[in-house]
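User: Could you write out the 3D structure of this protein bound to asparagine? I've included everything you need below.
Assistant: Certainly. Input first, then the structure.
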Amino acid sequence: KEAAQQQKLANVVILATGGTIAGAGASAANSATYQAAKLGIDKLIAGVPELQDLANVRGEQVMQIASESIGNDDLLKLGKRVAELADSKDVDGIVITHGTDTLEETAYFLNLVEKTDKPIIVVGSMRPGTAMSADGMLNLYNAVAVASSKDARGKGVLVTMNDEIQSGRDVSKAVNIKTEAFKSQWGPLGMVVEGKSYFFRLPAKRHTVNSEFDIKTISKLPAVDIAYGYGNVTDTAYKALAQGGAKAIIHAGTGNGSVSSRVVPALQELRKEGVQIIRSSHVNQGGFVLRNAEQPDDKNDWVVAHDLNPQKARILAMVAMTKTQDSKELQRIFWEY
Ligand SMILES: NC(=O)C[C@H](N)C(=O)O
């Protein structure tokens, strides 16, 4: 009977990368003071025995780091492992446990480059498992529930935090410390309650099987960096990033992605030298940058990131620039993804 039950369940692989979901503090009162990336995947799975009621679950430790330290090589390594698993007939869904600081970047990256309609869920926690009211157990349970659900297929990479199912493209960490940390200006796609997924919306932008990008053909990501806009800003950081080898600079601009008159000449000059300039907005609750609104982008040959925040714009620029160095193509890609 047990064997029959196992056969009916979906096969889900959990790829562990570290983060607070694998973190540990000195006492149960330590919800914010702890070390990330301490527990291995076997301990995480053993900590939630109910996972085995949802799916046949197995784990793999891909890396063990806090997500603020994830680099481009880590993204590529994770992305390639996800693709191998997605190609396997024995795998129905994939969960990635991840620190929350750059979770939105990894989720968007996978959303762009994984050619599969199998569910891929990225999940983290705001409190370590040793804390009172730790959120990791339920977030992980929800992630496995969504990964084993047929309803989650073809919806792009998803994120399960705080009972919500979010699109990996749209979601970002909007609050820290609190467990209701992840928000999207376009709203969640659904909810997961007691191991069941409920979807209410679909992502509108190109992703996974409909994406023109494929992790299998990407072996290196170009250098793309971010510089922040604020009152009294100078062009020092922009010039330094270009000198450091940046092929594109994401301008994390004020308001509509506006650019200070003190910075405009340097960005015009850098563009002439071949560096792509991409205007985004650093406003907290969701930016929306349009071409030729605050700056004459056509004249300057700059690109706008539309609703993508600066860190997501960096991910898309890197992926896009594995294929094109043309600013018009880049802009087309920023509208479509
Ligand atoms: N809540 C977390 O996971 C934060 C941690 N710094 C990380 O991103 O790994």
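The mean pLDDT is 97.
User: Perfect, thank you.
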